[in-house]
């Protein structure tokens, strides 16, 4: 197998270098396979990032100087040789770098003194290379074996479990990798956390909600050795799991209920179905490989036409909403049409590459990637995978992409109901005319006989065609002009009867099957517009045509070529082939990226702390063998997400308490060695959900259209339905508890971030969120002290405690602590809380209104204090 990989590498290199001749070594060429400093390993990466975009990778080479080979540098450009091997003082390139002229200002960052020194020493050592170089190269990026040696481009191989000095601390194989590193640094695991800490941590991680006092008591009293495992099984089996973990996925998918781009930010009426798809998929533990395939190519797994589909086919179409999450301004008439279309495609490629590949592929849209070996052509090869469905030359606006879920049965039923309603309305029209005629005769009887003759003759004539005499009669007797709209003035019982018939027809029409639509991505095999590389990313400057493919750098591990058009299915099949390539189990990035994200969500820090950048600008893994073991185990477990999460949570690594070892915390303040639990700040949505749960107000209704947001009287975005007919802003319609649903169901408008979310670092989807940030700023404290939401929930919480425990303050305080902190107060806390209630009640009594209850307000203040405390906001 190893020999085959070496042969494949050689073939790939040959393919990139073309059919150029490998020249014999010249007298001045120095090849030192084990050189301390070589062009390929140390020098080329520096020049590639800073210089290649002007000196070698474009069709026109600045100054005639190509820096991609040592041979070219010796040969030089318009100003002569760039380097003189062995003579750094005579090397023109070093003078230009030292003077700051190269790279030019604005084209890149100046080289650091360390980088300059490295290049100088390399030249002084006669500028050695590791191998003979070709005499010529075509413009563009060349991928060398050194590029392929980067850790994330290597095949995932299952490492041996390392030995540890204290195997008794190992709960899972994971622990061996972590403990081995800790022991190398002279440390070991922190002790296991206590039961109350563990259940609160587990409920936060798996549900995003606090445990109830009853759950805590049951777990603490469970003395069976598998108590922790059974708790995890219960938490994973609950539907709250999908709601919690969907939020993680929706972040990187860029989920939003609006199109963004413009200030009008149009709503996406049916996007919520994709959100529900993610929640349902996680709850039923859909294997990750199928989860990926459905989102990238669900439509290619269903046979068109998309009519009368069974539920599983509809689900696959809904899944492709993943590829419709990028901001989309193509409905706007104010924007550059072609540019806006191409921005949608670019954002989609960015979302796909960041979530599945963990690479900054988007950097290659305009030029060769300056750090990772991603040629610009590779970017457009990847774009070609999606362009049949996102074809900017045959573009479909968001409304044109909607697929109706109306079945033939629905249409037949709707037609039957419509016919019945029309029958009622036809009968109503007959009656209406009868009532009008009857009342007309009554009014006509009030006229003289001569006047009646003139009026009757004029009745069927349009007013503009009447004679002056006829117009005069109708002007003199306006009551003759009885219409459907004025009938009530003459015969209210008749008008009421007609209204009942109209209402009956309207009610009947409400029984029609509701028509739902899917926000899907689809294509046909006829959508084969060629994909071109765009010069500097400009769609108006197409260059060479490219075919669909994955990344070239991975060719030595996984086949990157993708069929142009699969004749076995009605669409091109490109996305399905790409999805299967990603989930083949051989791809070096798919499982690593997902395993790392799961680790990040559970441990608070990724093994790779840049979860969407496994390239050279990202941070290498702190535990590379552990990451490979996790990735391989995930695939071996048949991509079972819940099993993977449970495995991590069963480990000693996860169950540790916060370390109190000063020596360890000094040596590892970022907990990069995982020798301690990590203090985690709860996210914005979790803060709101936990407060609602504790106050007893959480509405656990699942799925469906999003809970709307609106502007309040001071311009903040809050949950609510604005009553636009009220004539003034801020008037809110009754929401019947919908405003108390979990935050995952709250509308995500790109221009309308909910105020409480925004203050607590909720991400903007532009186009997605690769990693959440957490800040500690004054507006957070102000929101917790003065925000309407937190104050109302604290008051409701106090009312709940009052109802349950009446005048028993110690019991109220005990319950308060248990519901907020999952523990009882100690004696000092209990005494302080009791004293606070007494003093606060006395103070409030002095300024209370006639309807105020000082005791309730005092308890509400205490509730608010705990809900604003660090112990509540952080999970240990």
UniProtKB/TrEMBL annotation:
<dbReference type="InterPro" id="IPR011429">
    <property type="entry name" value="Cyt_c_Planctomycete-type"/>
</dbReference>
<dbReference type="InterPro" id="IPR036909">
    <property type="entry name" value="Cyt_c-like_dom_sf"/>
</dbReference>
<dbReference type="GO" id="GO:0009055">
    <property type="term" value="F:electron transfer activity"/>
</dbReference>
<feature type="domain" description="DUF1553">
    <location>
        <begin position="574"/>
        <end position="837"/>
    </location>
</feature>
<feature type="domain" description="Cytochrome C Planctomycete-type">
    <location>
        <begin position="51"/>
        <end position="106"/>
    </location>
</feature>
<dbReference type="Pfam" id="PF07635">
    <property type="entry name" value="PSCyt1"/>
</dbReference>
<protein>
    <submittedName>
        <fullName>Planctomycete cytochrome C</fullName>
    </submittedName>
</protein>
<dbReference type="Pfam" id="PF07583">
    <property type="entry name" value="PSCyt2"/>
</dbReference>
<keyword id="KW-0175">Coiled coil</keyword>
<dbReference type="InterPro" id="IPR022655">
    <property type="entry name" value="DUF1553"/>
</dbReference>
<dbReference type="Pfam" id="PF07587">
    <property type="entry name" value="PSD1"/>
</dbReference>
<dbReference type="GO" id="GO:0020037">
    <property type="term" value="F:heme binding"/>
</dbReference>
<feature type="coiled-coil region">
    <location>
        <begin position="433"/>
        <end position="467"/>
    </location>
</feature>
<feature type="domain" description="DUF1549">
    <location>
        <begin position="173"/>
        <end position="388"/>
    </location>
</feature>
<dbReference type="InterPro" id="IPR011444">
    <property type="entry name" value="DUF1549"/>
</dbReference>
């Amino acid at each position: 197998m190893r020999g085959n990989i070496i042969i494949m590498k050689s073939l790939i290199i040959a393919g990139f270098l073309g059919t150029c001749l490998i020249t014999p070594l010249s007298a001045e060429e120095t090849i030192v396979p084990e050189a301390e400093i070589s062009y390929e390993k140390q020098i080329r990466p520096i020049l590639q990032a800073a210089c290649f975009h002007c000196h070698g990778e474009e069709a026109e080479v600045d100054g005639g100087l190509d820096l991609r080979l040592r041979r070219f540098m010796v040969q030089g450009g318009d100003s002569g040789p760039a380097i003189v091997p062995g003579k750094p003082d005579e090397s023109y390139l070093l003078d230009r770098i030292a003077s700051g002229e190269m790279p030019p200002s604005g084209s890149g960052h100046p080289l650091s003194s360390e980088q300059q020194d490295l290049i100088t020493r390399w030249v002084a050592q006669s500028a050695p290379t590791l191998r003979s170089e070709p005499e010529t190269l075509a413009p563009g990026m060349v991928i060398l074996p050194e590029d392929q040696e980067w850790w994330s481009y290597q095949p995932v191989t299952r490492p041996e479990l390392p030995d540890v000095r204290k195997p008794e601390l190992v709960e899972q194989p994971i622990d061996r990798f972590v403990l081995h590193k800790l022991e190398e640094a002279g440390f070991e695991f922190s002790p296991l956390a206590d039961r109350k800490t563990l259940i609160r941590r587990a409920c936060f991680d798996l549900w995003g909600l606090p445990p109830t006092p009853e759950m805590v008591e049951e777990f603490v009293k469970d003395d069976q050795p598998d108590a922790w495992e059974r708790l995890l099984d219960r938490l994973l089996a609950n539907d709250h799991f999908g709601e919690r973990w969907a939020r993680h996925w929706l972040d990187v998918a860029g989920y939003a209920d609006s199109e963004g781009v413009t200030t009008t930010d149009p709503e996406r009426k049916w996007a919520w179905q994709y959100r529900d798809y993610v929640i349902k998929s996680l709850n039923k533990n859909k294997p990750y490989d199928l989860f990926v395939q459905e989102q990238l190519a669900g439509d290619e797994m269903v046979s068109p036409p998309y009519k009368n589909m069974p539920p599983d086919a509809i689900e696959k179409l809904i899944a492709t909403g993943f590829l419709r999450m990028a901001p989309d301004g193509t409905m706007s008439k104010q924007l550059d049409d072609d540019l806006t279309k191409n921005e949608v495609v670019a954002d989609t490629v960015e979302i796909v590459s960041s979530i599945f590949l963990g690479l900054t592929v988007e950097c290659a849209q305009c030029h060769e990637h300056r750090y990772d070996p991603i040629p610009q052509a590779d970017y457009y090869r990847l774009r070609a995978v999606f362009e049949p469905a996102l074809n900017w030359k045959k573009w479909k606006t968001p409304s044109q992409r909607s697929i109706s879920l109306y079945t033939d049965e629905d249409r037949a039923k709707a037609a039957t109901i419509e016919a019945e309603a029309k029958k009622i309305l036809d009968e109503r029209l007959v009656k209406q005319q009868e009532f009008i005629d009857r009342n007309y005769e009554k009014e006509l009887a009030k006229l003289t006989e001569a006047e009646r003759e003139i009026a009757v003759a004029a009745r069927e004539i349009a007013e503009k065609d009447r004679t002056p005499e006829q117009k005069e009669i109708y002007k003199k007797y306006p009551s003759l002009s009885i219409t459907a709209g004025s009938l009530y003035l003459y015969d209210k019982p008749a008008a009421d009867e007609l209204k009942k018939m109209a209402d009956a027809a309207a009610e009947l029409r409400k029984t029609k099957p509701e028509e739902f639509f899917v926000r899907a991505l689809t294509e046909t095999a006829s959508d084969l517009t060629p994909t071109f590389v765009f010069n500097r990313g400009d769609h108006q400057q197409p260059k060479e045509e490219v075919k669909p493919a994955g990344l070239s750098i991975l060719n030595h591990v996984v086949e990157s070529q993708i069929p142009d058009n699969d004749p076995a299915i009605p669409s091109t099949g490109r996305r399905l082939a790409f999805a299967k390539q990603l989930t083949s189990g051989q791809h070096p990035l798919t499982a690593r990226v997902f395993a790392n994200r799961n680790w990040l969500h559970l441990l608070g820090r990724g093994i790779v702390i840049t979860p969407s950048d496994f390239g050279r600008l990202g941070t290498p893994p702190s535990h590379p063998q552990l990451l490979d073991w996790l990735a391989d185990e995930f695939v071996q477990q048949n991509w079972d997400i819940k099993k993977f999460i449970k495995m991590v949570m069963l480990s000693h690594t996860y169950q540790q308490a916060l370390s109190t070892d000063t020596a360890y915390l000094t040596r590892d303040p970022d907990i990069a060695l995982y020798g301690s639990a990590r203090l985690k700040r709860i996210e914005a949505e979790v803060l709101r959900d936990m407060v609602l749960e504790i106050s007893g107000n959480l509405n656990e209704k699942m799925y469906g259209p999003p809970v709307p947001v609106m502007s309040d009287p001071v311009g903040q975005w809050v949950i609510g339905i604005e009553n636009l007919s009220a004539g003034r802003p801020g008037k809110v319609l009754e929401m019947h508890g919908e405003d108390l649903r979990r935050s995952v169901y709250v509308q995500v408008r790109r221009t309308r971030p909910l105020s409480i979310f925004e203050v607590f670092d909720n991400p903007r989807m532009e186009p997605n969120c690769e990693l959440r940030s957490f800040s500690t700023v004054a507006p957070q404290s102000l929101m917790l002290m003065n925000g309407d939401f937190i104050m109302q929930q604290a008051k409701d919480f106090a009312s709940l405690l009052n109802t349950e425990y009446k005048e028993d303050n110690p019991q109220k305080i005990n319950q308060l602590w248990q519901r907020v902190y999952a523990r009882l107060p100690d004696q000092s806390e209990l005494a302080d809380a009791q004293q606070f209630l007494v003093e606060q009640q006395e103070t409030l009594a002095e300024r209370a209104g006639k309807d105020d209850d000082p005791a309730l307000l005092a308890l509400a203040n205490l509730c608010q204090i705990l809900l604003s405390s660090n112990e509540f906001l952080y999970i240990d």
